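Limitations

Structures in this collection are predictions, not experimental determinations, and the ligand pose is part of the prediction. Treat each record accordingly. The example that follows, with dinuclear copper ion as the small molecule, is included so readers can see exactly what is and is not provided: the inputs are given verbatim, and the output is the predicted complex.
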Amino acid sequence: MTTWLNMTLQDGASPIMEQLIFFHDHTLMIMLMIITTVMYMMTTLLWNKHTSRFMLEGQLIETTWTIAPAIILAFIAMPSLRLLYLMDEIHNPTMTLKAVGHQWYWSYEYSDFTKLEFDSYMIPQEENQASTFRLLDTDNRIVLPMNSPIRLVVTAADVLHSWTIPSLGVKTDATPGRLNQVSFSINHPGILYGQCSEICGANHSFMPITIESVSANHFINWVSSLS
Ligand code: CUA
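Predicted complex:
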């Protein structure tokens, strides 16, 4: 989760998010190169007389400054497309979780197991205890096995919502009448936090997502304790 003064991305909790962070840093370096070059050119322009009796055209420089940006853009576009198609891939998921957005809470269905479904409401501030995080903790957390590919299907029952976990690199619109699919696997045990990120009404800010990432054994124990 994000804590005070954290201005950068959260640490990646899934292989995809790690790659997304690498891509972000790569793109930032290219931007830095462009910004320094442009700033240098704009500064030197201040000391330029802007006149030349003999320079009427410059085919070489025109060709260069047309093609160079295209090549630079390809260095961003190629890894971007690689990631885009990597995120679209479903790697033989071990289980499926269904998330349904409601005004204003999420409900979850573990369709691989019988009758395993529940609503997940934010724990209100009045009831907030020292062990919970304000506006981020839910009364029923999603429990998921770590190191296993998981398929997530997302939909909504009323209006648009968006199921978003920054540390997983997952952000999927929850649309009524539509089923969106993403896949991810969680790198480590722990608790991951997320929020709805589609302005969905008065209590949009109060429908957080909490995941408990546990070992496969713990997960099986949790499932069998509920059924
Ligand atoms: Cu649901 Cu915003």
